[in-house]
Amino acid sequence: MNDLNNANLATERSLEIMRNFAQRYAERTNTYFCADPSITAVVIEGLAKHKDDLGSPLCPCRHYEDKEAEVKTAYWNCPCVPMQERKECHCMLFLTPDNEFAGDRQDISLEEIRATTKGEFSATKQEA
Ligand code: SF4
């Protein structure tokens, strides 16, 4: 499995779960993925990696002193409270149609995600 060659990539199982979640949630909330699909890919990969490591899809676009404690508060578990309450996604995964960065898609393939994230993460840090 190529997944196992890189500690920074999520398992394909979690990636598929988070990809499906993102597609369904975008449809349900009438939001769209970014016009630049590499943004969508990196965020979904980050969510899936947190699901693998922490058991929950903690928002990947923030710094945390203690990730386990953050998961317990649930505030930044995707979809986070700002997204649920105000449709604010600072990761630019879910964009309202009036957002200048919004594309016209609510879907992304596994292949599209990995085409981006394999290159993004393969030469970077090795820490989990
Ligand atoms: S900002 Fe919120 S909705 Fe957007 S990816 Fe992070 S947790 Fe999910």
What is the overall shape? globular
What structural class is derived from the secondary structure elements? mainly alpha
Heterogens: iron/sulfur cluster
Q: Please report the number of helical segments.
A: 5
Spans of at least 5 consecutive residues with low confidence: none
Number of strands: 0
**What's the pLDDT, averaged over the residues?**
92
* H/E element sequence: HHHHH
Which percent band covers the strand fraction? under 5%
Polypeptide structure, described:
There is one protein chain. This protein is an all-alpha fold. The chain is built from five helices and no strands. It has helices at residues 12-29, 37-54, 67-73, 81-86, 110-122. The longest helix has 18 residues, at 12-29. The model has no long low-confidence stretch (mean pLDDT 92). Bound molecules: iron/sulfur cluster. Residues 43, 59, 61, 76, 78-80, 83, 89-91, 93-94 line the site of iron/sulfur cluster (SF4).
Descriptive keywords:
globular, mainly alpha, binds iron/sulfur cluster, 128 residues, 48% helix, 5 helices
Quick overview of this protein structure:
By secondary structure, this protein is an all-alpha fold.
Give the secondary structure arrangement, pairings included.
Elements: H1 12-29, H2 37-54, H3 67-73, H4 81-86, H5 110-122
Helix pairs in contact: 1-2, 2-5
